[in-house]
Amino acid sequence: MTQVLGNKHMTATPATRVLGVVALVAVLLMALLGLVVSPADVVQGQAVRMLYLHVPSIWIAYGAFVVTSLSSALFLVRSSRRPDGGRHYDRLAGSAAEVGVVFTGITLATGMLWGRVTWGTYWQWDARLTTTVLLFVTYLGYLALRRLPADPRTRGRRAAVMALISFVNVPIVHFSVDWWRTLHQKASLSVGRRPEITGEMYWTLLYSTLAVTIVAIWLIVHRYRVIRLEEMRDEEALEALIASRLKEDDVQA
Amino acid sequence: MLREALLVARKDLRVEWRSKVTLGHVAPLALLILVVFAFAFDANARLLELGAGGLYWVAVLFGGTLLIQRAFDVETEDGNFDAFRMSAIGAPSLFLGKSLGIFLQVVLLEMVLVPGIALLYNVRIENWVLLLSAAVGGTLAFSVCGVLWGAMAAGLRVRATLLPLLLVPVLAPVLLAGSRAFETALGVRAEAGWTWTSLMFVIAAVHTAIGLGTFGFLLEEG
Predict the structure, then answer these.
(1) Residue in chain A lying closest to B218 (CA)
(2) Residues of B with CB under 8 A from a CB of A
(3) CATH number belonging to the domain at A44-182+203-237, selected among 1.20.120, 2.30.30, 1.10.287, 3.80.10
(4) Is this prediction's ipTM beyond 0.90?
(5) Would you tell me which of A219, B63, B74, B130 could form a disulfide with B185, CB atoms 3.0–4.6 Å apart?
(6) For residue B158, which residues of chain A lie inside 8 Å, CB to CB?
(7) For B67-105, what is each residue's pLDDT tens digit?
(8) For the segment A22-44, what is each residue's pLDDT rounded down to a tens digit?
């Protein structure tokens, strides 16, 4: 692949290397704040530290799925007008969805561990837990659709429509805790509402959201470039195949 | 647009009438599912009565998924979508027509399943209006979602496994709402059955709007 793609085989640039270092430092500081500086909760005890990863993860997942939906909409609307057939938007949608799925998985894993300590069980048929796992499976299906062997434009259009429909599930997941009053505690951070936590815990949670966001952006940039490299590899391989076939025909003639 | 949609639905129903797949294969399978659930619950009459609403909708989901699969296999195997593209029938009409065709076939399936749960699970229907409204709302939501996702998986080699994976998470709210509404109609749970029924109509309306706007993109090739 390196030979085929020449100098474009790298997924990193000086800018993303700097971003990677910033992400690493941010995560280390997040660990320090979450595990050492921030106090244990009166009710939840040490388990509260899990929330510093759990809450930002689901916010990042929501954000990533928003990016997927917007990119998919732009892909559908602008693909015919762009020289690359809108593949830039398709790649962005795919890379954001992958990162969204990873962070939804982290949310579920940390939530289950937190639930074991706080509720005494890994799983409860709570509305938000259930809808989050459905969201997770929905986007796993989206990624499965993107991986299918089909014409890239046809597959891109179908994936884009699926992303738009799947996005309808995101607000259902987030606001389900308000719609159905169940076991899950209210959202710790919410726009337009007084936060449930205060002081060092509040600032640690805010900072953790920032740190995890930087990590997510770094991941999306790299996944975007890997997808582009895969496309270039496939195109180059196809062109090489056509050229060798034409050569065979010339020899026979 | 409605006239074209009716043409498409009539074509699908004629294919179904000739093949008798819904009544001959899918409805017996759905009834069999109700019987198998009784095995799973060790024929516990109380448990079956409590879960009748949910089990009904699970049977609809299994049976309906087969109908959706078939509705699109019929089109892709003979390249019918190319014919649709060349005809004057627009994508929104095609979406509405296929949805109507699936809706009527699933209604037929449910006409077998309602007596099925009444007899096998020994439940008494206490609110017929709610039960019928919930059945219509749930079936509408199922049909429009099913047609959208059916088109998404159409023509792909792995469609048989892909369609349920894509469809079930999206239909989960319909299953939840349908189960709750049925439980109220069957008198096993005093809950807001009409609110759940309304939710199914809302889901159907949202997906109809999305389908009308995006179905054309799903049919385009290359």
Answers:
(1) A158
(2) 148-149, 152, 156-158, 162, 165-166, 168-170, 172-173, 206-207, 210, 214, 217-218, 220-222
(3) 1.20.120
(4) no
(5) B130
(6) 148
(7) 998 888 888 877 777 777 777 788 888 899 999 999 999
(8) 999 999 999 998 888 888 777 77
